[in-house]
Design goal:
This protein has 172 residues and is an alpha/beta fold. It has a single domain, classed as fumarase (Alpha-Beta Barrel), CATH 3.20.130.10. It is 24% helix and 30% strand. It contains 7 helices and 8 strands. The radius of gyration is 14 Å and the shape is globular. The protein starts with a strand and ends in an 8-residue tail after the last strand.
Length: 172
Amino acid sequence: MIELHPPLTREDVSQLRVGDRILIVGDVLAGRDAVLPRLSRMTPGALAASGICLEGAVIFHTAVSGAGIGPTSSNKVEIEGSIPALSRLGVRIHVGKGALSTATVQALAGSGSVYAVTPPVSALQTSALSARKVLAFAEEGMEALYLLTTSGLQAVVAIAHGESIWARDGSG
């Protein structure tokens, strides 16, 4: 298992390959349908003014509630549509579940970012949290943008460098 500590560099993710098991330790952003498109439309200046740093970030596609956390489908239009822009803004790893389109596979490759999947095991993911706080968009409730501190978010690299676990030739 490869242990990663955000913020990550392009070099950190350049070493990752499809099928690698990863353990993310430290701060992870959490958001989904309601906030990821909003976040992807923000300028670097607006992000900085809001106290949000995406350079080297890991974003987990999840809501955060009293019941815990667990991945949502990353191929929802609102989420998958935000991945290219968020990668250009510095996000190095997107974590969720489900296959992504060929266009997104290529956008990730072009931005030096990867996509990892995690099984829907809320109890395991929640037990690794040591802190959580709303970072932005509090009005979205459990779908707000959260900053999570984790002792070990487990995932498997599913898309890296133009290659996808669903189609080894990168065709989606």
